[in-house]
Design brief:
- The protein is an all-alpha fold.
- It has one domain.
- The protein is built from 7 helices and no strands.
Length: 132
């Protein structure tokens, strides 16, 4: 009988603490409410305690899923900054703006509706827009 194991991220806790701080600042730039922040991280809605801990710099990404989500969110941010280098406001509003490519849903709604697959869809869309 095989026992399932949960893979932990290879990054040390202090690095994951920095990731937590960066991610929470990113959510602030995007102007996301608590429910959306939790959903993007794969947490239960309104999980304010985890979000509060991350704001204080406690390590994020205790599971592989969450660690990968953070990586994709930061990749989305990087793509947006590269696509809109002279318009930071647009780069920050993009996640909450309706988009025809997503059947008039916002990228945040796509991620909330489709979970990790939605996160990959948004990331892939921006990767293609950058010509990668």
């Amino acid at each position: 009988m095989k026992t399932a194991t949960v893979e932990k991220p290879a990054s040390p806790p202090q690095d994951r603490g920095s990731l937590a701080t960066m991610t929470m600042k990113l959510f602030d730039h995007w102007g996301l409410p608590t429910d959306d922040q939790a959903a993007l991280l794969g947490l239960a809605p309104r999980n304010r305690s985890a979000l509060s801990r991350y704001r204080k710099g406690e390590p994020i990404g205790s599971t592989r899923d969450q660690y990968e989500r953070v990586g994709h969110l930061l990749g989305i941010h990087k793509n947006l900054r590269l696509l809109f280098p002279r318009n930071r406001d647009l780069a920050y509003r993009w996640m909450s703006a309706r988009n025809k490519a997503f059947d008039n849903l916002t990228p945040v709604e796509v991620i909330k509706d489709y979970g990790f697959a939605g996160l990959l869809m948004v990331r892939a869309y921006l990767d293609r827009a950058r010509g990668q």
